[in-house]
Amino acid sequence: MKIDPKSTGDLSTQIAQAIRDAIIGGDLIVDERLPSEAELADQFQVSRPTVREALKRLAAQSLIRTQRGASGGAFVNRLSFQDAYAQQVTTSTLLLSMNAVKFDTACEARYALERACGPLSAERRNPDHLATMRAEIHRQSQPGLSDEAFCASDVAFHRALVDAAENPVLSYQLAGAVEAMQPLMNMITFTARSREQIVAFHTRIADALEAHDSAAVDQSLRELAAYTISLADQLMRKRKQTT
User: Fold this and answer.
1) Does residue 154 form part of some domain?
2) How far are the Cα atoms of 36, 106, 134, 183, 236 from residue 197, in angstroms, in the given order?
3) What digits encode the pLDDT tens for the residues 152-188?
């Protein structure tokens, strides 16, 4: 593991990247103990606080874990999809909030990704997935449900649809699409959309999954995407008229 001490880049970032590359490349394996802070400081010819900062960066990415005691130290972590899932949601949320992404662009990507799960979800869905979706549909039908709770239920419904594919890689890839993009869409369109219409779409999707009808799932998601984009267009036109 090497860094470029003459580089203008932050040294702790370089060290974290070097260790990360070693983990990804297989030079450091799961559960292997990293050299001590003093040893790493000597190896990279930096101060121990610089090494400590690099290790904090790696821990924040769940790439390493630290243990105290005589047999403690920093160890290569076994990264789970569950750990990576949260990072994916956070990164996607930041990208959407900090960059100028058009609503229809985000909507197109979000539903295209979800539709990719449709055939697998229709084939592999189990009673628990269907029960979750039916429960969220029932919840969304309650007249006293707040806008915030309705939006959370909407996300939970689509999360169940994605998870029904029983593919952890797809679930991870779609974490940002569902749990970052869906709240964005809800925030923009919730004042204009019909809850009854959303419930109807969700019911059609759940019925199609129960019937193992992937074509019907895909068609319902296409129509839901078109409906969502249409609502956003209407709201944008209204705003332009009032300004």
Assistant:
1) yes
2) 59, 21, 16, 18, 20
3) 899 899 999 999 999 988 888 887 777 777 777 777 7
Given the structure tokens 């895909």, which residue do they identify?
218
Which three-class secondary structure string do you get for 36-96?
CHHHHHHHHCCCHHHHHHHHHHHHHCCCEEEECCCCCEEEECCCCHHHHHHHHHHHHHHHH
Sign of CA dihedral 103, 183, 143, 127: positive
pLDDT for the residue numbered 100: 66
Reading the block at residue 217, the tokens are 């799932």
Evaluate whether residue 6 is within a structural domain: no
Chain centroid offset of residue 216 CA? 26
Which residue is it, tokens 């779609």? Answer: 174
Q: What is the pLDDT of residue 6?
A: 65
Residue 207, pLDDT score:
98
Q: For residue 208, give the DSSP letter.
A: H
Last residue of a domain, one of 44, 76, 108: 76
Parallel/antiparallel/unpaired status of strands 73-76 and 64-67 = antiparallel
User: 3-12, 13-22, 23-32, 143-152 — which is least confidently predicted?
Assistant: 3-12
165 occurs within a structural domain: yes
C-alpha to C-alpha distance for 102 and 237, rounded to whole angstroms: 15
More confident residue, 164 or 84: 164
